[in-house]
Design brief:
By secondary structure, the protein is mainly alpha-helical. The two termini are about 20 Å apart. The protein has helices at about 15-30, 65-75, 85-100, 115-120, 120-145, 150, 170-180, 185-195, 200-210, 215-220, 225-235, 250-275, 300-310, 320; strands at about 35, 40-45, 50-55, 60, 105, 345. Helix 5 (about 120-145) packs across helix 8, helix 5 (about 120-145) crosses helix 9 (about 200-210) and helix 12 runs antiparallel to helix 13 (about 300-310). A hairpin with a 5-residue loop joins strand 3 and strand 4. The chain is elongated.
């Protein structure tokens, strides 16, 4: 595969340059993240996705679909536009927040530390799903903080659909269930997952579920890590098949939601199992990281029936199981067309 080529920086209006310089700090303030791994460097392409968050902290933006749209928006500041034009402008701001969300990082960590975790199917699913779900939920706030609503009046009222149809509904359903179990609510669960890199997202989800249960009081401190690992394994197994979902948009969205719900229920079931046993067991009994995506899904009969119907099957998980992905972090997760290699991008 030939090396991707980027174009020389295009001339920009001063307002656009100022926006690109502020985008990351505004995303940090909006999310409450510790910091951003954004390097401050914007790479420009003409044939890539709308945007991409490179592992070294550089951000890639598409010239005709993002940068030129921003230039046009500021060139007509304050003017009224039709809905299609406002949609294009809003999509560019959405791209900025999505890529900045990928690069939000916890204390002492960097975006690049999530590169290996992202290669697993469940890692891709949670990273992209959470990033897109949180971005869409807070896009209008981002627009306000950047002052774009004054530049393009009416932009906040224009609806945008979710990207990553196979991942986003699952992340929303997962955060809703986990938010109910923890008392944090969907938005706070999404926020906490959004401000850490891909390697920390699943452990963060398991930690929230564990700490909201009675297991911290029931188990010796020496078994807490093992318990969290078991909960994580149970939950992430349910999102691994998302990379292979097929069908029309409505069908994929429904399947995705069901997998997100199944992840919550699997976490609950694992907590109940540990509680009943009175022990998390020795660490050796916990499946290693590379095997997590190959474990058989554990969902209740009602979810099995719903998944089968959503996926066109006639028996529990018939079609979902057929869509299983290769096991392990070394198996590359399926990527939507236009994704720039192993780095996180938005079509």
């Amino acid at each position: 595969m030939s090396e991707k080529k980027f174009v020389e920086p295009t001339p920009k209006r001063p307002e656009v340059q100022a926006l690109l310089e502020r985008q990351a700090e505004v995303a940090v303030a909006l999310s409450g993240a510790d910091h951003s791994s954004f390097s401050g460097k914007v790479l420009e392409s003409v044939d890539g996705p709308l945007g991409a968050a490179h592992w070294n902290g550089d951000m890639e933006l598409n010239v005709p679909r993002v940068i030129e749209q921003l230039d046009q928006m500021y060139a007509t500041a304050g003017q009224q536009h039709d809905e299609q034009t406002l949609w294009l402008y809003k999509d560019t701001i959405d791209t900025l927040l999505h890529e900045n969300s990928h690069m939000l990082s916890g204390p002492g960590t960097q975006h690049v530390e999530g590169a290996k975790a992202y290669q697993s199917a469940s890692g891709t699913a949670l990273e992209e799903g959470v990033t897109e779900a949180w971005t869409k939920a807070h896009l209008n706030e981002y627009i306000e903080r950047l002052g774009v609503d004054k530049i393009a009046p009416g932009i906040k009222e224009v609806p945008l659909g979710n990207a990553y149809t196979q991942y986003t509904p699952a992340a929303q359903a997962f955060a809703t269930g986990l938010g109910a179990d923890t008392g944090l609510g969907q938005d706070e669960v999404l926020r906490r997952l959004n401000v850490v890199n891909a390697a920390e997202k699943w452990p963060m989800a398991a930690r929230m579920a564990f700490e909201a249960s009675d297991l911290p009081q029931r188990l010796p401190a020496a078994e807490h890590e093992t318990a969290r690992n078991r909960i994580e394994q149970a939950m992430r197994t349910e999102l691994a098949p998302l990379t292979k979902l097929t069908g029309d948009r409505k069908t994929v969205e429904l399947q995705s939601q069901l997998h997100g719900l199944a992840a919550v229920r699997s976490g609950r079931a694992e907590i109940a199992t540990i509680r009943a046993a009175g022990t998390a067991g020795p660490a050796a009994e916990v499946a290693p990281e590379q095997a997590k995506d190959s474990q058989a899904p554990k969902v209740d009969p009602e979810l099995q029936r719903m998944m089968a119907l959503a996926n066109g099957g006639t028996s529990p998980l018939q079609s979902v199981s057929a869509n299983a992905v290769p096991a392990g972090d070394n198996a590359k997760a399926a990527k939507p067309a236009g994704r720039p290699g192993p780095e996180l991008g938005r079509d």
